[in-house]
Each structure stands twice: as structure tokens, then as C-alpha cells.
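Running log. JK asked me to keep both predictions on one page so they can be read side by side. First protein, sequence followed by its C-alpha cells:
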Amino acid sequence: EHTLVKCLDHMEKNPDTGALGVRMIDGKGNFLPESKRSFPTPRIAFFKIFGFSRLFPRSRIFSRYHLGFMDENKMNDVEVLPGAFMMLRKAALDKIGLLDEDFFMYGEDIDLCYRIKQNGWRVMYYPQVMITHLKGASSGIRSESKAITRATREIKVRLAVASTEAMKIFYRKHWMEEYPKMVTRLVFIGIGILKLFRILRFRLAKG
């Protein structure tokens, strides 16, 4: 009820904060770990994709993707906030520019946070307020729903392709020059395998 007022008050009192995110819950009241994240470096993404973060949910090494070691009820500096809720400072946007239109549905929030951090602004997780995020609503698919129809299957496939393509776009834009060519090859091979796995999973899902 008081989310916008409290977030605005925090931003006004902390002029070095360029972006502010809040504690998110799903339609059933469960905390959504994507409320706070790290940048998906090859190492962090590897631990996430291959399940290490799930095996060691509180580890500072293996669970950096969703910052599982960080108390979800405490305010902290983070690297990535979700596009579902991000209060932005106009001065920061004036300096870094708006959303990169090369991204579709996924990745644009990570790119925006990256540019904000690169230009010296803080990105803050502010759990003193909370919102309900109905995941999948923008695509017409609610994450709480278990039913798989032909139409939703095709949407899930298209979104799986979009999400993995976003990984490649972000990597090319920000990190391709920082990592050796061998690392880049491995990253793109991993993204390709992940895309294939996700497509097959949705194609073969039972209705």
C-alpha cells in the first residue's frame, strides 16, 4: 500500500542511489529470489545452470546468482534488480540512456543495472516494502499454473529462445572483450545447450 511513497522517500534521502528494488512475493506469498541478483558472469551462470546454487543455497561462492547468502529482509547493495519493479533516478537515466532495444522480454533489466553501476550509482535492494509479482502475466502464462496447452507450450518455447538469446546479447555487449576467446566459445556453447534443453523440455511437456 505504501510502496511508492516509501521508495521515493528512500531515494530522496540517498541521492547516490540510481535504482531501487523491493522484496517480491508470488501469488501464493512465497519470496521470489530474483528480487536481488548478481551479474551473470560465466562463473556465476555456470553454478546456477548446473544446479550448484540449488545444492548450496547459502554459499557465498555457489549461490551468488540470487545472492542466497544475503538476508532477504535486510537492505543491501546488489548488482541486479528485476524489471518487475525498479524505481530509477532520472539523473541516472539521463546519463546512461534508456532501455537497450536489442533485448526482448529478458536481459534489459540486467543491462540497465550494469550501466547504472558502471556510471557510479548504487543499486539497492530495499525489502522494507513488498509487492506481489505474478510471474508470466506479461506473456499470458502464470507460473503458478500447471496446465500445459499447445498454445502455452509454443509461448514457452519462444520465451526460452528469447531468454537465452538475451544472454548472448549481454555477453557480447559487455564482456566479450574481457574474456579469452576460449571462454567465449564455451559460454556460447553452454548457452546453445541450455536453449536446446529448454526447448525440448517444453516441446515434450505433457498437456
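And the second, directly underneath as requested:
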Amino acid sequence: TIAGVVMLGDGMQTGLEQTDSSQVAIETLRGLGIPLWTIPMGKDNPGAATRDIAIEAAPESLKLFSGNESLVNFQVVAKGLTGIEIPIQLSWIDESGKEEVFATRTIVPTKANDNISVSVPFTVPTAGSYQLKMEAKAAANEIATSNNQQITFVETREGGGKILYIEGSSS
């Protein structure tokens, strides 16, 4: 019987893919109920660790009816930030450039490379052209921050779906 596995490393490899043999080994151990203990080695140099947050998979554009309820879906990819809270902020930018925050979320990655799906409900603003900005606050020692935000172009119109009840009630 195996009591557990000890892994020594410098923690620098944060780019494990699902097909990587080390990831397969980790999943196999987890499936067998065998604990894995990791022990860091070497100097502590937080500036050298690869940390990155990226907003991905956001829609390029949306056409919506003002006043309706809608949902925006996107993904936050976090590397080297296991267990660290990442604040996310969503805001509308109108045609004059005025920015208004309408939602905030906090996510916490559970793996060295985590891909977290985020869905945020919102009420569509008045008719016009907007930019919907999804932005993650930069992490300490994050080198590249240009991928911490995504913009979706939104066109809103008056009107929307109307339902005619021929028989019965709306409840």
C-alpha cells in the first residue's frame, strides 16, 4: 500500500496541459485516493514566478433590447495564483467615454493553471452604443497585464420581445 507521494520542485512550471504526463500522473493518484505532498526547493523569488490573469472567451459584440435582463459569459484564466482572490469588475462605457461599474465578482483559482467560467446577469442599458468592459485586477508580480481585460461592443435598441396572451394569464 502506498501511503503517499512526495514531489520536490521549484514550482516554476505552471503551464501543465491536461495531456501532459505529469498531469495524468496527478489525476491517477487522485483517482486512487493517494495523497500528493509537494515540497518547494530553491530560493524564494516571487518576481521570477509566472503569474498571469487573462480574460478570455468574451463575446465580440452583442445586440440587445434596452430594459431586458441578459447574461454575459466569459472565462478567467489564472496561472500561478492558486488560492489567491482575483477581483473582477464589469462596467459600461457609453459613447462619450463615461465608464460606470455595474457588477463586481471575486474568483479564487484552485489549481496552478485554472480556467474559471464566469456568468454575470445584468439589465440592458438605454438605447445606444456601448462597450462592455470585463477587467481583472492585476496580481502582485504579474508582468503582462494587457490581457487582464476584454471589451465587448454592445448595441442596444428600444423595444424587445412582446408576448400576446390569447388565453390564460401571464402568471
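Observation for JK regarding the second prediction: Helices lie at 21-32.
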